[in-house]
Design goal:
Elements: E1 5-14, H1 23-43, E2 50-51, H2 57-65, H3 70-78, E3 82-83, H4 98-115, H5 134-140, E4 145-148, H6 154-157, E5 162-166, E6 172-177, H7 192-208, E7 215-223, H8 231-241, E8 245-249, H9 252-259, E9 269-271, H10 291-317, H11 324-338, H12 340-344, H13 349-385, E10 390-395, E11 401-411, E12 416-420, E13 428-436, E14 440-445, E15 448-453, E16 457-469, E17 473-481, E18 490-492, E19 496-498, E20 502-507, E21 510-515, E22 520-523, E23 526-532, E24 549-551, E25 554-561, E26 565-577, E27 580-581, E28 584-585, E29 589-601, E30 607-614, E31 620-627, E32 635-640, E33 643-648, E34 670-671, E35 675-679, E36 684-689, E37 694-698, E38 703-711, E39 745-755, H14 763-772, E40 775-780, E41 805-807, E42 810-811, E43 817-823, E44 830-836, E45 842-844, E46 846-847, E47 854-857, E48 863-866, E49 871-873, E50 877-883
Parallel strand pairs: 1-7, 1-8, 2-3, 4-6, 5-9
Antiparallel strand pairs: 5-6, 10-17, 10-40, 11-16, 12-17, 13-16, 14-15, 17-41, 18-25, 19-20, 20-21, 21-22, 23-24, 23-31, 25-26, 26-29, 27-28, 29-30, 30-39, 31-38, 32-33, 32-35, 34-37, 35-36, 36-39, 37-38, 42-46, 43-44, 44-50, 45-49, 47-48, 47-50
């Protein structure tokens, strides 16, 4: 028979960094497997290639134990016989910051290239859904292809598993959907039974789904598998007996290059986010699993990206060293956290404990580095100004900052004033103040050591209103201790709070939000929902017959009002079932309390909301349901990477999903990066969250539901209500995870934005920057040495003096946003990335008296051309600039 279809057999290992096993288990196994893989490849030249899951982390870990094998491994990577990169780890692209994804690829591609070759494939075998900007990111690293498994509806394929995958900015990659996943050829054999009963039916199915090519892809691997040394011989035997298919032992790069020789053969284009659950489980509700882990990751990512790195750039421009080696170490620890199982939280308790510890380590290092940079810069400013008692506000954004800042001041007196370095009074209010005993210190004298009493002092938390803090720079405030009247936040007997935009009232146990500009009101605008969770660490599962418990009963705890901020504290209480008892809720109930603080600040168009919860129940899910004031909401919108994605409130694929054989129910529960909203002609309602990653718009009530947390105690469970069949992951062992019940105190923060008009969705990017804070503060003082991590230790002060105000650069377009500012990978400049989430082309200029040269780069940070004048960013696009 002529014109056989070609089957590209790609041997590989999918290497989970950690899961139901720990990272140490993985690494011990890794060394044994990689040792053996190199032996097999060197001893059998017919074994022409092996894909080691596109992760450089495995190489990093291997060489820590086997440093003497570097040259040997490099030779195999350079010869394209072992494929690594472009990732450092297989990141979950829907649960981490967009810049964390780019940074993961930057380290992965750079390190793989240094080893000899980075695989030209954005390989996505197992992550739970695909970020809509992945094609653009791959293109930015010069990656031509992407092979991926999850998230595609069959009708999107239009008869071909090969297609062009495009991002909202129009950039794309040539893609292939591994329809049967990454393991259909794992047990490849040439015996008659396997060949006829398993292999041929699979290949026939693949052939039917590849109308435009005779090339078929057969990934031949699995989780943590050892190299199949018999594959070259097996392929020969299959070719001798099969008159329909020709088998080629190959790799992903070769398959894609050969298959896409004639690009015109594949006309199908698939755009955007891929979260379909038809063929593969997508685990939509994993976004709310182990909230504690996700919240800590959110905090750490934001601290590094929006405070530490830009602050370190300011420091370096003014004479300090940039902590690159520390950041390398921190990012690699974060990349381990960001692997798809890890950040998902669908792990053993031991593994999740390690993830938390890893995040806490990174957080402590970040705090220490920020502390050092602030202290060294502030000391240099103090020398120049001749003022000892100063407070410096650092702005780590590319635009000037105006508004409230919160900071801590230590003084000997209870009263003091603030002045700008130009001599203008800076208004502020006192949020809290406490007296701290000075204790005793040891003084060495000729008569020996003596204890000396140290005078006490005051710790004051204040909010100051600043007219302008220069972009990517700082301003200095002088603290003058004197007898004066200090504006304070005081308790109030009133049951409402307000600013120019909003009023929040608790009256007769009814909580009302009023928009003072439009006179619109939302009565009972917040309530809570509790349901049983009969699922596992991968998926929420409703308990058949269970009815949700809703409550909005509120008790006023207190009101505090000041000139710049007002706070309303309320306690919501309900009697909730303590846990699941078999297949039912237990009859035992517990008083479940949610302490909620609403804050309105002067000049802000948002209501800040804080929930404090001590979770005393098990096997349940808690959501907050927010009234939007809208009717017949058809779509929601949320941010994802560099723009906004719109999603249906009613999922069109949900009806009949079981009959259609979906892997799991395509429920309209979605991920968000920072914000989510709904809008109409006469109103818009949105929330900006801090670490809350899951939402749903309820079609019946038009409420916006934010999942606060899930509480479950099993890693895997069979036959869930929304997920039929086997447990995900391991299905032959029950792994109990009592820590995942989250029996602990947790805090949740978000802001409500409610307007009486159709909202420009991109406004929320600006509000997000403001809400999550792009500033840091530091007081030069000698009273307290325990406020920050390293205050009590001596530090070198390498800078002699600095001006009281400074700015490295700024931009002139409010519709353009900075997503990263850091030292370049090659340490020869500063990399700044700007993005445009709007529907229109945006022009902007970077103005700087410090950086004389500007150049455009790709994401790999290769210079593409000089910048001369204003730059343009296409709609929903981004641009990377190198400043030197």
């Amino acid at each position: 028979m002529t014109n056989k279809k070609k089957v590209f057999v790609v041997p590989h290992s999918h290497w989970d960094r950690e899961w139901y096993f720990t990272i140490e288990d993985s690494n011990v196994l890794l060394v044994e497997n990689l040792d053996y893989l190199m032996d097999v490849l060197e001893n059998d030249q017919d074994y022409n290639g092996y894909v080691f899951d596109a992760q450089m982390s495995v190489v990093d870990e291997y060489l820590k134990i086997r440093p003497e094998q570097r040259e040997r491994l490099q030779k195999l990577v350079a010869a394209k016989r072992i494929f690594v990169g472009p990732w450092y780890t297989q990141t979950d692209s829907l649960l981490v910051n967009k810049e964390s994804i780019i940074r993961n690829l930057l380290y992965g591609t750079r390190m793989a290239t240094e080893m000899g070759h980075s695989m030209n494939n954005g390989y996505l075998p197992d992550i739970f859904g695909q970020n809509m900007y992945l094609p653009s990111m791959f293109e930015g690293f010069g990656i031509d292809y992407s092979i991926l498994q999850r998230g595609i509806y069959t009708d999107q394929l239009n008869g071909d598993l090969n297609f062009t995958w495009k991002s909202p900015d129009g950039k794309g990659v040539k893609a292939n959907n591994i329809y049967f996943g990454y393991g259909p050829g794992k047990f490849l054999a040439a015996d008659e039974e396997y060949h006829q009963e398993r292999l041929i039916p699979m290949l026939d199915k693949l052939a039917a789904m590849n109308e435009s090519t005779d090339n078929l892809l057969l990934p031949a691997g699995g989780d943590q598998v050892l190299v199949r040394d018999h594959f070259p011989e097996t392929v020969k035997e299959l070719n001798e007996k099969d008159d329909k298919y020709e088998y080629i032992l190959s790799d992903f790069e070769s398959f894609m290059k050969e298959t896409w020789k004639d690009e015109s053969a594949f006309e199908n284009v698939i755009e955007g986010e891929l979260i379909a659950s038809q063929k593969s489980r997508i685990h939509n509700t994993i976004r709310s699993q182990r909230y504690d882990l996700k919240k800590l990751n959110y905090d750490v990512e934001n601290k590094i990206l929006y405070v530490l790195e830009p602050l370190a750039v300011i420091g370096k421009a003014l004479g300090l060293s940039y902590p690159q080696r520390w950041l390398d170490s921190m990012w690699k620890m974060l990349f381990d956290v960001h692997a798809h199982d890890s950040i998902g939280g669908c792990n053993s308790d031991d593994t999740n404990h390690d993830i938390i510890v890893r995040l806490e380590k990174v957080n402590r290092i970040a705090d220490g580095l920020v502390n050092i940079i602030k202290k060294q810069l502030t000391k240099a400013i103090s020398v120049q100004t001749g003022q000892e008692n100063i407070s410096v506000v650092f702005n780590t954004d590319s635009k000037n900052y105006s508004g409230l800042i919160e900071t801590v001041l230590f003084t000997k007196k209870t009263t003091f004033t603030l002045q700008s370095y130009q001599g203008d009074a800076v208004p502020f209010e006192l949020l809290s103040q406490e007296y701290i005993s000075g204790g005793k210190k040891i003084v060495v004298t000729a008569e020996g050591e003596k204890e000396v009493e140290v005078p006490g002092y005051y710790r004051s938390v204040i909010q100051a209103k600043l007219i302008e803090v220069p972009a990517m720079g700082y301003t200095t405030l002088f603290v003058e201790e004197q007898e004066t009247t200090v504006t304070k936040v005081n308790s109030s007997k009133e049951s409402f709070i307000e600013n120019d935009q909003y009023r929040v009232t608790l009256e007769n146990d009814v909580l009302t939000l009023e928009n003072k500009q439009t006179k619109q009101k939302l009565v009972d605008f917040i309530r809570f929902e509790n349901v049983a969770d009969a699922g596992d660490s991968y998926d929420f599962s409703p308990l058949p017959g269970d009815e949700p418990i809703h409550w909005n009963e509120a008790r006023l705890v207190g009101v505090k009002k000041g000139e710049f901020s007002q706070r309303l504290v309320i306690e919501f209480t309900a009697e909730l079932p303590a846990e699941l008892n078999g297949q039912n809720r237990s009859n035992d109930t517990k008083a479940f309390k949610i302490l909620t603080t609403f804050t309105l600040q002067d000049g802000e168009e948002m209501v800040r909301v804080h929930h404090g919860i001590d979770n005393i129940c098990k096997d349940h899910r808690i959501r907050v349901l927010l009234s939007t004031g809208l009717e017949n909401v058809a779509h929601s919108y949320a941010d994802q990477a560099f723009s906004v994605i719109e999603r249906p409130v009613v999922q069109p694929y949900l009806e009949g999903w079981r009959e259609k054989g979906f892997a799991e129910a395509p429920v309209p529960i979605y991920p968000l990066e920072n914000f989510v909203g709904v809008t109409s002609d006469n109103a818009s309602f949105a929330t900006i969250t801090k670490g809350i990653k899951e939402y749903e718009v309820l079609a019946e009530t038009n409420e916006l539901a934010l999942t606060l947390f899930r509480s479950v105690g099993l890693l895997g469970r069979d036959n869930l209500e929304w997920r039929p069949g086997r447990a995900s992951g391991i299905n032959n062992k029950v792994v109990y995870t009592p820590d995942a019940q989250l029996q602990q105190e947790m805090e949740f923060d978000y802001a409500i934005v409610w307007t009486g008009k159709e909202m420009d969705k991109t406004e929320l990017f600006s509000k997000t920057d403001y809400y999550r804070k792009h500033y840091a503060t530091y007081q030069h003082q000698s009273l307290n040495t325990f406020e920050e991590r390293l205050e009590r230790f001596e530090l070198p002060m390498p800078i002699k003096e600095l001006q009281p105000s400074n700015s490295l650069f700024n931009i002139d377009n409010q519709a353009v946003f900075m997503s990263t500012c850091k030292q370049s990978y090659e340490e020869n400049g500063v990399i700044v990335r700007f993005f445009n989430p709007t529907e229109d082309v945006q022009r902007f200029s970077v103005t700087s008296e410090v950086f004389t040269d500007q150049a455009v780069t790709n994401l790999y940070e290769t210079v593409l051309g000089k910048v001369d004048g204003a730059m343009e960013i296409p709609p929903k696009g981004y641009v990377t600039i190198k400043l030197t």
